[in-house]
Every structure is written in structure tokens, then in C-alpha cells.
Specification:
- It contains 11 helices and 5 strands.
- It is an alpha+beta fold.
- The protein folds into 2 domains: about 160 residues; about 130 residues, Heat Shock Protein 90.
- Strands 1-2-3-5-4 form a 5-stranded mixed β-sheet, covered by helices on one side.
- β4 and β5 form a beta hairpin.
- α1 runs antiparallel to α2 and α10 runs antiparallel to α11.
- The longest helix has about 80 residues.
- The two termini are about 40 Å apart.
- The model has no long low-confidence stretch (mean pLDDT about 85).
């Protein structure tokens, strides 16, 4: 943790309170101690003041603060003055080092502080007759007080850094997920547009000579589809440039856009049956996921199944939106592409599941079950 280079009113605490306590309570503390310990005089109060005021440097120069407090306490004890509130400055100074420096360095500084100040108290115990036993007991309590406070400070620093690391990792993960979602949108939008254009162009070439009006209709559809795909690609690229720019985000397609999608497919010559009855109040993220699953599934039909016929079914079953896209074509052998993985991610993003594979009786089928009770924290896929 970096220390502040500027003075702050927070630096007055605990310096001024400990100064007040030291000046007011040192003589009272001395009255309850043995006769061989000296009562406070002007010299003693000077050490008390130095130790307390040194705490003003606790944030700006924690090591210097610990040195000054250590010198004041060491001389105070070595001079034989009675134990008093000046000792409270020790843990406060150790805290400053513990929260400002790496823990190994702080451990060395605090250990040196405890050893030097504890050694300075030895004459008082030998003069009182308790000898090394009394001195050892007091030194252990002193080390526990100073070291315990320093350990708490170091632990708080570790915790703050850990929390900051977790927040940074969460931010990086959110950015990564956003970029992955953008890439999936580009894949779905551009891939679908190109597949539709290829299908329309093939049909237009086939009927060009015998049905010019049909060819013109298909070319018009190609123009509209390509413009839509380019607009979508431009919007997605704008999101890459500035993911936080809300203006760059195009409206997310949903179930209300499904009829236009199916109409484009039929216009290109795809034999397509539909049974679409999702009901009312389908959450936006679920509707968007369902649309993208149908779009990618039909795009795969165009890419891999030639002139196969397809069937799209959407229905509400209990609290689930069931999506099924089936075709009667054949798929080339090999592992599934990124389209199926992307559809599965979209289903998972709203708490659903998706399966895809050969259908019984031939063809290929994609099935998805999407829960209609979607948490508000789930983003639009």
C-alpha cells in the first residue's frame, strides 16, 4: 500500500488523543507503581510529547515515525521513569509500518522496535528485584501488544489487496465475456446473412432465364439482406471500439423479429414449416436467445444440408420455452462447428440447455429448453 504524500486531518488521530492522555495520565500512572521508578518531570513529558507527535508522520513516513517513537520510549524507559501512557504510542507506530510496507519488511522493523524498547526496560525490573522473570513476562506482553496490532494491520492490507484483486479479475472476466458475446453476434449475424445471400444467389441463377421476375425479386432480397448484414457488422464493430457506448448498440433481435427471419428463408426457396406459439410475456433475454438459436440452426441447414426442408417449433411447456429446429438433410461427417457451441452458450446464459445431433429417422435436430423465469441479472445473450 502506498503512503500518502500530503497531510490529512486524519493524521491527527491518534497523535493528539495520545498526547492528551500522556500529558494528563502519566503522573497518575506513576502513583500506582513502585517507589524505585521515577515520577514524571519535564524531561519525561518531553519524551511523551515526542512519541505522541511523531505519530503525525504515521502515514507519510511510517518508518521514521517508528524510529522516533522507539527512541522516545527507549530513552524514557532507560531513564527509569514509571511505565505510562507513552507505551500506547508503540502499537500505533507499528500499525503505520504494517499497513504501509511489505509484511517481511514490516516484520523486521517491528521486531527491532520491540527488542530495543524491551531491552531498555530491563534495569527497572532488576532494580525492583523481579529480575529476568519479571522482565521476560513484561517483554512477552509488550511484544504481544505491539506485534498483535501490527499483525491486524497487515491482515487488513492483505484482505484489501485480495478484494481489489477479485474485483479486477471480475472486471477482466466481464470484459472477456462481453468480447466473446460480440464475436458470437458477429458470427451469427454475418454468417446468417452470407448463407441467405448464397442461397438467394443460387436460386436467382437457376431461374434467371425462365423467370426474370423471380430473379429480380431474389436480387432485391440479396440487396436487403446484405445491407442488413453490413449494418449489423458495423454496429458490432462499433461495440468493439467502445463497449461502453450505448449508442453503438443496435436493438437486440427477439421473438418479434422471428416472422421476418422465416420469411427471408422461404423467399430464398427453403421449404420451411413452422409451429410458433411462445405465449405472452417471454422475457427479453429468453426471446433473444430463442431467436439466435433458430437463426443459427437455419443457417446451418443452408450451409450443410443443401435443399433440405426444415421445421421450426416454439412452444411454452410449463415454465419453459421449448425450441426445436429439425431438417431432413444429411450433414457432412466431422466435429460440430462453433455455431452449435455458440447456441449452447446462449442457452446456458439464460439458465437453459441445448442439445444438437442426428434425428431419429434421419436429418438433424436442435432442441433447447429455456426457462421463462430469468433473473434480472442475466444479460441479453
Amino acid at each position: 500500500m502506498r503512503t500518502s504524500a500530503r497531510f490529512d486531518r486524519r493524521d491527527l488521530v491518534p497523535a493528539l488523543p495520545l498526547l492528551a492522555v500522556g500529558l494528563a495520565a502519566t503522573s497518575r500512572a506513576a502513583q500506582n507503581q513502585a517507589d524505585w521508578l521515577a515520577g514524571p518531570d519535564a524531561e519525561a513529558y518531553t519524551y511523551v510529547a515526542v512519541a505522541a507527535l511523531a505519530l503525525l508522520l504515521r502515514r507519510q513516513a511510517p518508518r521514521l515515525c517508528l524510529v522516533l517513537v522507539g527512541l522516545a520510549i527507549t530513552v524514557y524507559l532507560a531513564r527509569g521513569f514509571a511505565f505510562g501512557p507513552i507505551l500506547f504510542c508503540g502499537p500505533a507506530a507499528a500499525w503505520g509500518v504494517a499497513v504501509a510496507r511489505p509484511w517481511r519488511e514490516a516484520l523486521a522493523w517491528v521486531t527491532g522496535f520491540v527488542v530495543v524498547t524491551a531491552a531498555a526496560a530491563a534495569p527497572a525490573f532488576y532494580a525492583g528485584g523481579s529480575g529476568w522473570v519479571g522482565h521476560l513476562g513484561w517483554s512477552g506482553a509488550w511484544a504481544a501488544a505491539v506485534g498483535g496490532v501490527a499483525a491486524i494491520g497487515a491482515a487488513l492490507v492483505v484482505r484489501r489487496r485480495s478484494e481489489a484483486g477479485v474485483r479486477a479479475e471480475q472486471a477482466r472476466r466481464a470484459v472477456s465475456e462481453e468480447r466473446l458475446q460480440m464475436a458470437q453476434d458477429v458470427h451469427d449475424g454475418v454468417g446468417h446473412g452470407l448463407a441467405v445471400i448464397a442461397m438467394h444467389a443460387g436460386v436467382a441463377l437457376h431461374v434467371l432465364d425462365r423467370d426474370p421476375d423471380r430473379a429480380r425479386e431474389l436480387l432485391t432480397s440479396i440487396q436487403a439482406t446484405s445491407r442488413e448484414a453490413l449494418d449489423g457488422l458495423r454496429a458490432d464493430l462499433d461495440r468493439w471500439r467502445d463497449p461502453d457506448d450505448a449508442a453503438a448498440r443496435r436493438p437486440v433481435p427477439g421473438l418479434e423479429d422471428l416472422p421476418q427471419l422465416l420469411a427471408r428463408m422461404r423467399a430464398g426457396g427453403l421449404t420451411l414449416a413452422e409451429q410458433v406459439d411462445p405465449g405472452d410475456d417471454v422475457p427479453g433475454p429468453v426471446g433473444a436467445a430463442a431467436y439466435r438459436i433458430v437463426q443459427e440452426s437455419l443457417t446451418n441447414v443452408l450451409r450443410h444440408s443443401g435443399g433440405a426442408a426444415a421445421q421450426v417449433r416454439l412452444r411454452r411447456v410449463d415454465a419453459q420455452l421449448e425450441v426445436e429446429v429439425r431438417d431432413d438433410g444429411t450433414r457432412p461427417p466431422g466435429p460440430p462447428g462453433s455455431g452449435i457451441a455458440g447456441m449452447r452458450r446462449r442457452a446456458t446464459a439464460v439458465g437453459g440447455r441445448l442439445t444438437a445431433g442426428p434425428a431419429s429417422g434421419g436429418g438433424f435436430v436442435v432442441r433447447a429448453s429455456l426457462p421463462l423465469a430469468v433473473s434480472s441479472r442475466v444479460g441479453t445473450p
